[in-house]
Amino acid sequence: MAFFFGRRHSVSGAPAEDDGVPRNPNLRLRRRASVPNAPSQSRGTHDRNVFQDLFRRHRDDSELEMSTVERGHGSTRENQSKKSTATATEGHTGSQSSPQAHEPFAKGHNQEGNRDATSSSEYALSKKDIETLFSGAPFFLLERGKYDHHYPQVIFPFDDHDPTIQNLWDRKPLPHPSYTLCTLHAHLPVPDRWVISRDEPIHLNSWKKTGGAKRATFDIGIFEVPNMLAMNGKDPGAVGLRHFLELPVADAVRYPEEPKKLNYIQLSSIPASEIYELMEHYHDVYALSGGAAYDRKQMLCDGPSAWKKIGVRDINLQCLVERLRTLTNLRRELLHGKKATTILDTESTRDLYSGLFTKFLYPPSKPLLADSSLAHSLKSQIKALTMTLAARHAWVDFSLPEWRLYAGQLLWEAGPHPDGDLLDPSTCSKPWMHPTLERRWLLIQMLLAAELLLRLDATVRVGILENSKELQITAQDVDDFEKLRSGKVDWDLVVVRRFMDTFDISYRADEPDHPGFDPVEHTGHSRGEKNHEKNPRSFFENLLHRSSSGSAAESTESAWNCSLVPTYLDQQLQGLLVFGQEIGWPGLDGLRAGLESAIGSGQMSEAVANAYNKPVHNMLPVEAGAPLSKEEMHTRSPSRRWIALHCSQDQKASVQLGGWITRSWLSGFVFPGEQISHLLMATILENDPDALAKLGPIANLYGGFAYNGMTWWSKECVVGRVLASLEDTKECLGWIRSAVVPKDAWTVQPLDNSWFEVSVQPPLSMPGKPRILQGNKIAYESTPLGRGERVSGAFSLPLDSPLEKEPKKVVFETLTFSGKDGQSLENTPHPIVDRTLMTFSIASGTDSPRKVSFQLRYNVRFITSHECRPPGNFISYHCACPTGSGTSTPSSSSSPRHHHRLPGHPLHSGYKYKHISLDSLPEHCIPDNAFIEGSHHSNHGNHHRNHEVLIVDARGGHERETFARAWCASLGYHALIGRVGRTCLACCIREARAIGVKVVLRVDGGVNRSPYPSSQTLPGLKEI
């Protein structure tokens, strides 16, 4: 199966070509070919039986037992023959429902007997046949990356020759250049001044050609999880395969929920000698480098003596800013300059050592550098920087998604803070305490990360690529660094790259302190004394009679003397306006006028630059309630992500620019991950006074809200994902607009101008590890060749059943919310929806409509099926029925020869599936035990056979699809959206098996694709 793993493909926007009819039916192409997505429309029984007869032949009783794969099917030849003309009908098992799909291979038969049977009654598929039949079929697999990460891949191994195969996606392209901030994955560039609306490109102004930056030599090797490129599936409210598979191992799951508290040593449980040794080294440099933990806010309060324990000096602010500016300019030269440079081209190794360890860090002790050949070497500097940044909980941890959202609060908001997890300066009266100390601490973190980043880049370029004798890098050096680095350090490098790309940095000595602060005036001076008994550090300091005050001269300078001026303001503003337009924001014109008048166009005004270098104050109104606790910032609730919007307008300010959220987006200080969706919507809200007045300053970015007769839903909310399939919905980058306003279950009145938190349960899933952690199982569960013999009789061609002439009409009626124990939600601040009901009516002919309601209990996801391309070949067969209807079988008679293009890919009989009609869904209200119990009650092989994919026919209108989605949310099944004309039924079934999804929703095709000419006929299947 080595040929499965061909070259991986990126994707492009190449259009499909036209179809063609073969002029010579006997002519074969000289290369493999597939047609660009022939419409997979319903065929009659005539066509279905033709293909079933083609692939399913009478077989003998013997079967060859494959020793290298699991057994997924088996049957007697007699049963298979009886099923050869069966059709796939609603409510019954499809072409895989024959006994062959339910019984294991017969055992004990010899290989010779099987060979005879195959040669007499079946055609054994050759490699050429396989390449022809499965051309254009996606193969699903996992690629193993660094640090045991696995990356889902989709390849087309039989179409390497065809560049148009790169047009097959399961996601929409990013609509605007500013949205590329959401990802670290490689992607096609979005041209400047270019917008993609509803899959159609729109020019904003004339194109501007710009040279792209060169890639840095050092590859950090991490990506946001889940993959944000695949967040926008081609179907509304859906995600791509990569995003879905990575959800169970997302950054929010992988990294700790909140900083762990230091587990203080119980003095009574350790020997006295160890206590004295601990006290002796308590104030040593890098005392916390051995994996000990600290508390960031406590460390800031403890001052320079505590900073020394992680090796950090009390750094002069001007020196810090000037060095950060130098490193920023050097990195820009490295990326945009004409020649390749490194930091070693401007500073020698000794100069780097001297500057680092005399101005910013304390020199590490010799034991810490015992494995470094020279104390001043670049390797020793890298180790010291890594150890300092890796000090647990001493810094802001950007591996946590919540800190990627709140980073702007550290830079621009002054205390007291209405939300977040920041230090309250009033709780500390030490001389080094200053209101801007946390901003300064973040700047120090950025400086150290920049020093590390440029040294790593120089090490890779000079020491490895150029093989320098002066800088020799061994495998042991690489291994040592890998042991030191952590997810926190990796994300420091990601953040500092974004920081240096975003801001022009300078020092303004004449900038007065903002605001002034005198710690003596605050009553917090007694806090340290009150907590004396609870703080072991105070115990050690008093026991040793050492002063911990240090010098406060450097610490008390205002961090606002560091000027940060954004460089992409105009592009970010355009991205915000595109987002507002795509989600149909009603106040967009006023929003545009206000922001454009404040920011202007062209060169940045001095007023805007000053607005970015003054703190913003945010005081919540009394009716908004108490400030949010830090637990709200670190919550892992799937339905709640509260954030405080800026609602305190400074009337004296010359530029009204919202709060830290608006500044974060407009500056481009946005990090990879879901945070881009939160910042976009929050920026819209806090710059729309009417929306802010009606909805309040507390936003739930995992919920939804009703405003002026419309609703907007986060894509994290299952209600939005279900409503997205209705007509007249809009979607952009994680937010969905719907015309449906929920009603209160008690009063039946619309719940307008309100936020909603919708309680949900985890969806049903297979037991065991997430599929992305199961290695080759994705490829194993979905290989197009199946798990058995590669003979024509083992494959069938599943097709969608014909559309009903008079289908039952499904009408969406209401969405109702109720609180705990059925309570009303009217006039409730921050309502929590405990019960969500979607009600539909189903009518057929003269029958009176019946009501059907589904409760949206589960947080299910909808996944866009990956596009496939039907094989570009024609089947030659003889029609035994002169009228062209009825059963048709290949024959050697002299009846007229016909050619028919395959509407999809064949499916191996080992893949079980079952058709379910839409109107029968209310009766299917009990989950499939075989799916949710899996390997707990059956062995691996039996579970493969028992995993039956449900095919729900949701064609016939938007409301039918919404009906099916609501059923999935009520039962707990994730669903694959298999759009007719984009993905054939066989590929949908295989993809559902690959990702461990129970349901495939077949919905109406929205794209009319025409195949390009091909005149190939299937070799060997012409006259069998």
Automatic annotation (TrEMBL):
It comes from the Eukaryota. Residues 82-100 have a biased composition (Polar residues). Residues 1-122, 511-535, 886-906 are annotated as: Disordered. Residues 1-10 have a biased composition (Basic residues). Residues 44-61, 68-81, 104-115 have a biased composition (Basic and acidic residues). Residues 886-895 have a biased composition (Low complexity). This is Uncharacterized protein. It comes from Aspergillus transmontanensis.
